[in-house]
């Protein structure tokens, strides 16, 4: 992610990030952005800036909170946000040299800015390869802390490790090139939980994704219908709340079982968001 110091997307220092965090702490509708900034600071302090970089178009974060967060888990992920009009973000994305030419993704694009990002993608001479429309859910910290996690007889919950990456990636319906490496980073940096049988078989799991959200919720096919997914959501929500963050999650709008699950557990829909897989125009033509 290193590039010229003259790039329009200016990398924030730790002190800048701390001030940015305080700016977003006062904005109720963007508390999940505050969570990601706080996690980014912790990643930076513990691991350096090789995995996550917070940038701002011409340092406009100081005036309107405009940021472009770059995630590097073998594949580049981009999370833009602004407390202003998004014009600074738009200009930054179009003029930067930090964005790879072939493959990347935009994560959790708020519904208010989807059209702007799609316009940017077109002007970058790239194509949207896949687009996922999601509900953005949240639960209050107090509600999440009050959750009581009860494991069925013969099962137990344990933290996930890198040895579980292959299984998780193989069964993830939305996997992409090098997604196994991304999953390994999320487990190492943010953690996750699995529900195991008494024979130590991993049956269901959930991770805390790079945005601080409940992510990659999945249950092995033969164990579905037993309520294991609900246990995993509650375990992750409680863990996130105990870390001081508001639990959030994204659920594909057409995933009726998961939508029903989050509604039943008391999560509230606060918006829609979009996950966009982006490829170069030349790559897109080769796939036709």
TrEMBL record:
Domain of life: Eukaryota
The protein's name: N-acetyltransferase domain-containing protein
Domain N-acetyltransferase: 155-288
InterPro entries: Acyl-CoA_N-acyltransferase, Acyl_CoA_acyltransferase, GCN5-like_dom, GNAT_dom
Protein's organism: Cryptolaemus montrouzieri
